[in-house]
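Researcher: Let's run the pair from yesterday's discussion. Sequence first, then tokens, for each.
Model: Starting with the first of the pair.
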Amino acid sequence: MKPQKTIYLIDGTAYIYRAYHAIRNLSNSKGFPTNAIFGFTKMILKLMDTHHPEHAAMFFDVKGPTFRHEIYPAYKANRPPMPDDLSAQIPCIK
């Protein structure tokens, strides 16, 4: 039987939030927060090392309303705003 090829589709935003909340109070020597960056990188490396997908693609939430808000206006209505120290790390991750 021929080995099956795999593609992993990764919800990058979910991984970022998970990493941010898993590791607290981590920053570099200049005081820049790095907990989400560190945790995200470790999780992705472990995923790739463990499963060895042939291909992988990562996607992130977009800023602003989407079609989901048109379908359901209360979509994510109760979600608190993103913490500033997390927001600062996202460009480094992307």
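Model: Moving on to the second of the pair.
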Amino acid sequence: MLALQAGGVTIADTLRYERAAIASGEVWRLISGHFVHFNWAHCLLNVGGLIVLAVILPASLCVWRCCLWLAASIGLVLFLALPGLQHYAGFSGIAYGLAVVALLPRVPDEPIAAVVLFALVARALWQWLDTGNADAMPWLGAPPLAAAHLAGLAAGALLLCIECRASV
């Protein structure tokens, strides 16, 4: 993500989620849009989250495979469920999904995992109600997209279910 951010506007414009471009066949944007950002603050926040989540993700799961699966799932949900969404960039939906994958299995033994998951769900719902977006917009470069966060939570839970079934 840091390399893509350093690549500047041209790289970001080529990879960002753009509905018209996706509809014209540039389907990679469903995935790549999650790995580019509106500005450096946005990028660094997401890279920090990825580092923390990669450390606590269960050892049996490949971080990059999870990221790609979550990116594809979230991108598809955004494309199908939000026809009015023209542009999107950022990793936070994937971060929310990784948090579910990393924390949900820990809930029975580590109550703090339940508290953190509850806080993430509450924050995503708060943003969905549009009360949590205004303050973040100036420094992120765009308002947070609550739908991406909610899709990430759901996709993370689905990925965890798939992984649990595969290991049985």
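Researcher: Give me one sentence on the second I can quote.
Model: The two ends are 34 Å apart (CA to CA).
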